[in-house]
Every structure is written in structure tokens, then in C-alpha cells.
Amino acid sequence: MKYSRRTTPLKQTEIQGHHCSVDVRLEKLSKVAFFRELQQEQLDKINEHFRAAHIQKGEPVYHQGEEAKQLFVVVHGAVKLIHHTTEGKDILMDLLKPGEYFGGLPVLGDENYAETAYAQMTSCVLSIGAVDFEQVLHANPSVAVNLIEITTRRLKQARHRIHQFTTWPVEKRITSVLLMMGEKFGEDRKDGILIQVPFSRKDLADMTGTSSETASRIMRTFQDEGLIRSGRGWVAISDAEKLKQRYISDG
Amino acid sequence: MKYSRRTTPLKQTEIQGHHCSVDVRLEKLSKVAFFRELQQEQLDKINEHFRAAHIQKGEPVYHQGEEAKQLFVVVHGAVKLIHHTTEGKDILMDLLKPGEYFGGLPVLGDENYAETAYAQMTSCVLSIGAVDFEQVLHANPSVAVNLIEITTRRLKQARHRIHQFTTWPVEKRITSVLLMMGEKFGEDRKDGILIQVPFSRKDLADMTGTSSETASRIMRTFQDEGLIRSGRGWVAISDAEKLKQRYISDG
DNA sequence: GTACTAAATTGAGCCGGCTCATTTTAGTGC
DNA sequence: GCACTAAAATGAGCCGGCTCAATTTAGTAC
Asked: Which of A71, B33, B166, B167 is deepest in the core (most CB within 10 A)?
């Protein structure tokens, strides 16, 4: 990968027009884990309950502490969930790709949003309110069971993260996150996997519970070892296997 | 609190007979959060799906890694969930009181148990298998929604714990756990709140992600400041308000 | 009361990673 | 290509808490 003039390898997302066309909406709704198994007709009806919004990069979808009144689905782009701590630090809870949902509703046990949701890149999100969602629930009972499953999976992930924070050194944590990001947002190229979403050192630090200086140092090491390439706000994994072998398998 | 001869202040639980009498079972089942709102008749029917087991102190209910086939409810005693890490450390995920459930089922998204469940004291637990539970689900649709709510609440707790591990010093973490234990298992006495469940330094350390030596040192400090009293496997909080004010509010 | 022992305590060296400060540079606009 | 600047990198001092080792003692059995 050679840059004659330095430009980010990330795809530009300032595509003209609205990204929330019906086709794309329906496609992404069908990918929402708790709507799986539903027929096209059912999805069409559900789609009617959702409203679309176009969010500029860096803009919030909702703020931490606000009353939880809506569920959201990423249709295009990426959304980052940040918990702002009382100590003035940020914890990056998750970075969501199209088809993933976020937000909260009273019926699901949420009172206030525990985090602020930001568009990591220009994004299109769909939202549904409490009354509409309960209608969807009643009309499609399988949705409730699927929701339990997904919430349980998220709970397991959160618990695994507790494990990581308790016992894993920072290198290992960073490796784990890079590999996860490669799987979730990675674009295969002949020279590796480009994580096709803006992802800065601060994001990495906030997601692994370390400082951005430490994240930077470790990324420097990985780069010097030929395991990754990176620049301002982007990362490409040159050798995922070796990265995993060297920093995860060692224990 | 004066001990003429050193004996633990904890109640002895080697009560003769079986603790899983129908009255107690029904009472604790009605306290399970996802069975709330059900009528006595419904609870009677649900009770028929559960089997009882008597577990000796220190014995496991199930092992980490086993196939998840049952949900359990604590009727009497206390159950501790320990995740054994590959690094040889233990993470105390939760300490459950009567009325709380644990375990897992495929329908809820579980494949294997992520932790080993141990009886922290002689306990009586009820269990239900996959087929029975799905029947309960179908007969009582509100159970599914309640389950989402509870799982969501557990997810929030887990995420709060990530926040704590990321930014809180150990004193603050230990304080938080002591206060939580006081609320959950505390017995009010004129000289404070006795945590009426065995709770060692190792338990405290495993629950706060620190070493037992560090837990011991901090408890020594709290003791010297008159905030707690403790002995082998027991803790009493002498001044919860001051403990909170001094180690949590300071930020 | 004595004997016992595992839980709790204590001492001390070590280090991973933090904070603070400064410098370098990737990537954009023109 | 030049100018700019915020993201990334680098240096260095500091310390919270870990690990290892040894000692003390809470609570039980008899």
C-alpha cells in the first residue's frame, strides 16, 4: 500500500442523497437479530413503525442520562456508545455496525440512557418508540425470546470484558479489540484487513480501559513488528494470525 | 459486640431437616423477579416443573464449561458464581440470595455455563430444565418480558462494573461491594449491619478484581477507622454512612 | 484450657501503566 | 508545494497495587 499523497485509506461516506431508502431499511431491519425469522410481510409492517434519521459524523443520537424512550437500529454507517464517567473519562462501550440496535425502552427495563450514542461516521439510523415497540412485541411474540437471547449474549460479552480488565495486560486487551474490529468492520485486501471505520488511538484506549499514550506505544510496537499498519484514525491488520498467536495465545 | 469466647457471629445453618418445604419453595418462587405478578394458581403450576436439591457448603451446583441445561432458583442459603480464568484466577461474578435465579438454557441464548456455581453455605436450590421452562414461558407470556428486563438490569450492572474496574481505585471498589453486600445480606443490629453470609477476604478480592493481600490491607484500614468489624469469613459494617461518605463520595 | 490450621495479616521489593509535558507528523485545504 | 492542526508519538518521573514470603491469629475440635 503506497500513498503518493497521503490520504486516508478509509472510504469516504459523504455520498450524496439519503441513505435510508426503503430497500436498504428493509434489508438492515431483517438483519436485526431480534427480527430474524420474520416473513417479508411482517417486516413490512414493522418497518412502518420506524422513523429514519440522518446523523452527521460526530453528532449525538441521544445523551447519557436522558429518559430512555426509543430503540434505534443502525442502517448505514456506525454508531459509538460512550459512557462518560464522573471522573471525566470516557468508556467506549460498543461500536455498532449496520443491523445492530441500541438505545432503550421502559418495557425493556431501561429508565435512562446509560451512555451517549455518537455517529462515528455519517449514519442513517431508524428509531421506534415505546408504544410502537410494544405493538411489534405483541404482534410478533418470537421477538421477546430473541431479545432475551441477544441481551444474554451482550451480558456474556460484558462479563468477559470484566475478566479481561481484571487479568489481561493491555497488549492482550488491545489485540483482542483489534481482532474483533477486524471481524466486524474489516475489509479484506491483499495486504491485510482494513478496519473500514474511523478508529483513533483514543477510541482504542477508551475501549480497552487504558490511556491513549499507552495505546499509541503498543500500536507502535505492533507496527514495528509488521503486524499492523495505521495512520490517523485508521488501522489495517497486516497479519491477524501472527498478532493473535503472539499476544493472545501466550496467555 | 463482645465475644466471651471467639465464635463466629454468623448464624449456623446446619438446621435439621430439609429446607425445601413446599411453603418455602412457593414463597421464594414468588420472589423470583420474572415470576412476579403471577397468581397463586399459576405459581402452583410452575412449582410442579421444578425439582429441589440440597447442596452442602462449598459444593458445586454445576461446573463452568458444562452444557447449559437448567435454570436454578435459590430457595435457602446462598450461591456463589465463580468464573475460573485461564490464568488461574477466580472472578466472583455474583453472590445470590434466596429468590434469585442462575444457570442457563439454550432458549435464553446459553450454550455452556460460563461459571461454576458453589453453595456458599448449605443451600436449597430449585431447578428447571429446558422443556419445562419453555412450557412455563408459553403458559405465562409475561415471563419473557420480565426476563428481558432482568437480563437488561444485569447487563447494566456488568457495565457499571467495567466502569469501576476501569477508573475506581481499589478502596472505592471494596467500599461499593461492602455496601452492596450489606444491603443484600445485611442484618441490622444495634452495633451495625452484620453481613449474614460467609464472606472471606478472598471472596472480597475475587469480587473486586484485587489480591487478597490488598483486600486485607484495606479492610485493616477500615477497621482501624472504626468503619467495620470483621473476623474470619465475616464482616459487619459499623458505620455505612461514614464508609460511603469517606470512600465513595470523594470521587 | 490446649492444639491445630487455614484465614488473615504484614513486610518489602518490583513493575505495568498512568500522568504530564513536549515533539512529531498524517492528512486536509488551498 | 505550503500552511495548518489535531492526532499520534515520545520521554520520563511516579505510584498503586501486585507478587512473594513470613508471621499472626480467629475459630474449631476435643
From this structure: A71
